[in-house]
Design brief:
- The chain contains 14 helices and 13 strands.
- It has about 550 residues and is of the alpha/beta class.
- It has a domain of about 160 residues.
- It has a six-stranded antiparallel β-sheet, with helices on one face. It has a five-stranded parallel β-sheet with strand order 8-11-12-3-13, with helices on both faces. Strands 9-10 form a two-stranded antiparallel sheet.
- Strand 5 and strand 6 form a beta hairpin.
- Helices cover about 55% and strands about 10% of the residues.
- The longest helix has about 70 residues.
């Protein structure tokens, strides 16, 4: 709750507030321009509003100068002190016990603080969105007798209804459906954009196109089957065999096997070269000398030794080449095995050739293209159906909640109306139409006083039934209401344990002693000529 306001520019520097009703009382002559509405705007300022600075800078800032409003809230047993400088209204100072600013936060952060403490379980809307529309002060542009939920100039009926549902703890039931619907609409919008740039096929646009596509896909499947028959392929499974990956693997395997075969043949030839390259032994030379005694054995031996050297060199070279070939063959084997396994996992028969696979892959690509168009069309149908079903679900849920909320408010308004009006009169009616529009009126009574009275009754009903924590009513709401209903309105005010802030022009307007007693006992400040909020009235021409 708001505990107090301090400002060194006020004539009464400190203003303390109570639980329940708090009255800003005017003088006996009901003088204007003494600060009643201004103080209510200051209270609004303490609750995160900005009208005080925006609307009053032409006179207050001009005549008083920029100033600091210090204020204290109590939540539980904790006191929280703040300060707002009119020269820097978008920031709020956090204060210590001596009201010294030790940290500055943004106005948004301050309102989030209030939202957290006043609405710990309802955070779907901002604090100002929930509270601001029920702070009715001259100059705030939210005193609309026919539109009690209108918070500001461009505020829609739908926004007001959503906030009301939040205050009654129903909006959370709708939030999930609304978020789902938004997500679906965003997805549809993205798909439509993707179609525009041909990222998603949009060949099928009607049921007839869909039937043609199904027939085309069936024909292509038969053509693919025929390709396998012509390639003498009897057993195959899955379309993975016709993917670009599978074809590449098959071609890669064939190339590896060719290299393996070439190297194996070379290895075999080299192995034979090693076996066939034997030199002449010493025993063979001696045997030759026996049959040819005149042969120059020494010369032959030299030639044989030379030949042995050549053989050794060649053999070394062959062995080096064989080592390289064996290394390459091992590398090829290490590459072939995983490819064979991968092709086996893809259910690709060993007998199928790359040419057959290429032909089948081309046909499969055509099938995939047609199938993508079919699936895209089915996805669009499914999405439109889901959006339609979600909309229906949302509308039904909104209708049920709207009925619950409006029935609760209307019953409460009837109870309060019967207590306020001395004679039996129609109570105000609040009707939600089509879940995004509402109507508010008092049947058979369009008088100004009746409209303002209806607005007060509506606010009291919402305050009593919902999580709305405060209510602010300026004296302008009371001016056209008869004495007896006004007396009874104040009796309703004091029944609430929530903070209510009202301004009253003069206590003499209320002839009922009970009402006068309520006002006197709940007055937090009296303003009058010479006792203005700022100690002066700059609207008067000085002599």
């Amino acid at each position: 709750m708001l505990v107090e306001i301090n400002c060194d520019k006020f004539l009464q520097n400190r203003i303390k507030f109570n639980d329940g009703l708090n009255v800003v009382l005017g003088g006996a002559k009901a003088n204007n321009s003494i600060g009643k509405s201004t103080l209510l705007l200051v209270i609004d300022y303490c609750f995160g509003g900005d009208t005080y600075c925006k609307k009053q800078d032409c006179d207050i800032i001009k005549n008083v100068g920029h100033h600091i409003i210090r204020f204290t809230f109590r939540f539980g047993n904790e006191l929280y002190r703040f300060a707002r400088d009119t020269s820097n209204p978008n920031y709020v100072g956090k204060c210590n016990e001596n009201n010294e600013i030790f940290e500055e936060i943004s106005l948004k952060e301050f309102n989030e603080f209030l939202n957290k403490h006043y609405f710990p379980n309802n955070s779907n809307f901002s604090f100002r969105d929930k509270v601001g529309r029920f702070i009715r002060v001259a100059g705030k542009d939210n005193i609309h007798e026919d539109k009690p939920l209108k918070g500001f100039g461009v505020d829609s009926d739908n926004q007001g209804i959503n906030v009301l549902e939040e205050l009654f703890h129903f909006y959370k039931d709708l939030k999930e459906i609304k978020e789902k619907l938004k997500q679906l609409k965003d997805e549809k919008k993205a798909r439509d954009l993707a179609k525009k740039f041909n990222f998603i096929p949009q060949k099928i646009k009607s049921k007839n196109d869909y039937k043609v596509a199904l027939a085309e896909r069936s024909a292509l499947l038969n053509e693919k089957e025929e390709i396998f028959k012509q390639g003498n392929i009897r057993h195959f499974e899955g379309d993975a065999a016709f993917s670009r990956q599978a074809i590449d693997l098959k071609i890669q395997l064939e190339n590896l096997l060719k290299n393996q075969s070439r190297l194996s043949y070379r290895k075999k030839k080299l192995d034979k070269s090693i076996i066939s390259n034997n030199s002449i032994s010493d025993s063979e030379l001696n045997e030759l000398h026996t049959f040819f005694p005149n042969v120059n054995i020494k010369k032959l031996d030299e030639i044989n030794e030379f030949h042995k050297g050549i053989i050794a060199i060649v053999t070394n070279e062959i062995m080096s080449e064989l080592a390289l070939i064996n290394e390459e063959l091992e590398g090829l084997s290490n590459k072939i095995k995983p490819i064979e396994k991968e092709l086996n996992d893809l259910n690709i028969p060993n007998c199928i050739s790359p040419d057959v696979m290429k032909a089948a892959a081309q046909k499969e690509a055509e099938i995939i293209s047609v199938n993508n168009c079919i699936e895209s069309y089915k996805k669009d149908l499914e999405m439109r159906l889901t959006i339609r079903e979600t909309k229906t679900n949302l509308e039904e849920s909104e209708s049920k909640i709207a009925e619950k909320v409006s029935n609760s408010i209307n019953k409460e308004m009837e109870i309060i109306s019967n207590k306020i009006n001395i004679e039996k009169r129609y109570s105000p009616k609040f009707i939600i139409k089509n879940n995004d529009k509402y109507q508010f009126e008092t049947p058979n009574d369009t008088g100004t006083g009746s409209k303002y009275k209806g607005l007060i009754i509506f606010d009291l009903s919402v305050l009593n039934l919902s999580s709305l924590p405060i209510l602010v009513h300026d004296s302008i709401l009371f001016k056209n209401i008869a004495d007896d209903p006004i007396n009874n309105i104040f009796k309703q005010y004091i029944l609430s344990n929530k903070q209510i802030f009202v301004s009253v022009d003069k206590i003499g307007s209320y002839h009922n002693k009970g009402t006068a007693s309520i006002i006197n006992s709940k007055t937090v400040i009296k303003l009058d000529d010479g006792l203005e909020l700022f100690g002066k009235s700059w609207g008067k021409i000085s002599n």
